[in-house]
Design a protein that fits this description.
mainly alpha; 2 domains; 10 helices; globular
């Protein structure tokens, strides 16, 4: 397990760094047809590609607890959220933003009911429709807030947010493995300890400090963040990342699954990688936008 994680983790990191570097490089470039490439295009494409995998995993979790769920409708809803968040102009009125959100929610609910009821089996239709609307919103909008940050900031800030969260995971894992004695919430995640949590939060804070120093040197156009503020933001992001991971653990524990899937050897599924980002998205948007 650890061996697979040590292989898959670095490979994913390399792919992510390469994609973010290329996304930053093409920022502001103009195509031969005269169209300017919008900020965060590659990150939006990555989100759109990850959505179907996340939807399949969500439906698997739902099925394990006896909830019917329409995978196609879940995929369509998640893609609609991602497209709306990324493509909506910054000057869109608040009325139109709310109307767009309402339209997606209403259409998702209606499509779910139609899809689940077409087989003339009505038991579980309400639950399945509610699961589709709620989970698609939670996953897609949590990640979508990072796309909103990318519209106004360098792609490397997205890398920084992810790096803080994942370094917290890494610090928590190794500190917990070495000196972890006191279980954090054993009925949800038996492997997590208070020692690991503290180690992870300190790692996240230190990582944020180094990233703030790097941003000041190599990204002078970005807002300045003091070392004390950076450390506090790192600890906050680390804490929210751990909380997001625990929320997904509750879902998986309820369904009797250890991992959302096995698509990423050693790491589990797409949701096992994205779960810690979901609660960080809102905090990062309001703090950094």
């Amino acid at each position: 397990m650890l061996k697979q994680r040590l292989i898959t983790g670095p490979l994913l990191s390399i792919v992510l760094i390469a994609m973010i570097a290329f996304d930053a490089k093409i920022e502001g470039c103009t195509l031969s047809c005269g169209t300017c490439i919008p900020n965060g295009l590659l990150i939006a494409i990555l989100a759109a590609l990850a959505a179907p995998l996340a939807a399949i995993e969500l439906c698997s979790i739902a099925a394990s607890v006896g909830a019917r769920c329409s995978t196609p409708v879940l995929i369509i809803t998640m893609e609609a959220w991602i497209a709306a968040i990324y493509l909506m102009p910054a000057n869109t009125s608040s009325t139109n933003v709310m109307a767009t959100m309402a339209t997606i929610i209403i259409c998702s609910m209606a499509l779910s009911v139609i899809s689940l009821a077409k087989g003339k089996e009505l038991r579980g239709v309400f639950t399945g429709a509610a699961v589709t609307v709620a989970t698609s919103s939670y996953i897609a909008m949590g990640f979508g807030l990072l796309l909103l940050i990318r519209k106004d900031h360098s792609a490397w800030w997205i890398f920084g947010i992810i790096a803080i969260i994942k370094m917290c995971d890494t610090g928590a894992f190794f500190v917990g493995s070495i000196i972890g004695r006191h279980k954090l919430i054993p009925w949800i995640s038996p492997g997590k300890t208070w020692e690991g949590l503290i180690g992870g939060l300190l790692t996240a804070g230190i990582t944020a400090v180094f990233l703030a120093m790097a941003s000041e040197k190599w990204l002078p156009m970005e807002p300045h963040i003091s070392m004390q503020t950076a450390f506090g933001i790192g600890v906050l992001f680390g804490f929210l990342g751990q909380a997001g991971d625990l929320i997904m653990s509750v879902f998986k524990r309820d369904s009797g699954l250890k991992d959302a899937s096995s698509v990423l050897p050693g790491l589990g599924g797409v949701l096992d990688v994205l779960d810690s980002l979901l609660l960080v998205g809102p905090a990062a948007f309001w703090l950094l936008s």
